[in-house]
UniProtKB/TrEMBL annotation:
Family (UniProt): Belongs to the TACO1 family.
Keyword Signal recorded: no
Alphabetized GO MF terms: DNA binding
Xref: PANTHER family: TRANSCRIPTIONAL REGULATORY PROTEIN YEBC-RELATED, TRANSLATIONAL ACTIVATOR OF CYTOCHROME C OXIDASE 1
Annotated SUPFAM superfamilies: YebC-like
Name of the protein described by the UniProt record: Probable transcriptional regulatory protein AAGV33_15840
Length: 240
């Protein structure tokens, strides 16, 4: 298996289950998708993907429809996606994806977390190059063979296709999202969920005490309502 498989396994076991802001994040994704491409999912591929993710997260249909309706209101806040970069203690690179309606607030908050936890907030581009920006799709495994599908989707940008207990996962470069989404839809393959991730090119192993230092900063950042995702170069401990 490749880096995407190992990354997914570590993240799933350690962090994703602990993050309790899924519906809030999906709500923001809906607003950004509607503001960008309109409220009709048939004509808005980004909104279509968000609705799939909402379904996968068991977000009530009424909540989704309400969020779409609210997003069409011109008075609804527009969220801007902002990327923050920096270093946690012990040389661990941190990449933070945010969606904010108040940039000054978000900048001040993120800076304070780095300062309080002995980290260093970096400048634009200081650590982003250490991560591969990828897209991913989860589809049902019934009736499909992951190895055959990988061969078929290589021409559309797929780099890694593998099974886990919840289905088949497809990973590709960030800019292949639309091409693969369209191909899966053309094949009438149900997309259970999709998204984007930043996979560290290299990771660093730390001692238990050092891990605790880094975790303190990561947890502080993840608690912020403006934060959508946090990525880092610390080696994940699968047994944690």
């Amino acid at each position: 298996m490749g880096r995407a498989f190992e990354f997914r396994k570590g993240r799933k076991m350690k962090r994703w289950a602990a993050m309790a802001k899924t519906f809030t994040r999906i709500g923001k994704d809906i607003v950004m998708a509607v503001k960008e491409g309109g409220p009709n999912p048939e004509a808005n591929s980004r909104l279509r993907a968000v609705i799939q993710n909402a379904k996968a997260a068991n977000m009530p249909k009424d909540n989704v429809e309400r969020a779409i309706k609210n997003a069409t209101n011109k008075d609804t806040a527009n969220y801007k996606e902002i990327l923050f970069e920096g270093y946690a203690p012990h040389g661990i690179a941190i990449l933070i994806e945010t969606a904010s309606d108040n940039n000054n607030r978000t900048v001040a908050n993120i800076r304070s977390y780095f300062n309080k936890c002995n980290g260093t907030m970096g400048t634009q581009g200081s650590v982003e190059f250490m991560f591969d920006h990828t897209c991913n799709f989860r589809i049902p495994k019934e009736g499909l063979d992951a190895e055959e599908l990988e061969l078929e989707l290589i021409d559309f940008g797929a780099e890694e296709v593998f099974e886990d207990e919840d289905g088949i996962l497809i990973y590709a470069p960030f800019n292949s999202f639309g091409t693969i989404q369209k191909e899966l839809e053309n094949r009438s393959i149900e997309i259970l969920s999709s998204g984007f991730e930043r996979i560290p090119q290299i990771t660093k192993k730390l001692s238990a005490a050092e891990v605790a230092d880094v975790e303190k900063l990561i947890e502080k950042i993840e608690e912020d309502d403006d934060v959508m995702n946090v990525y880092h170069t610390m080696e994940e401990n699968e047994e944690a």
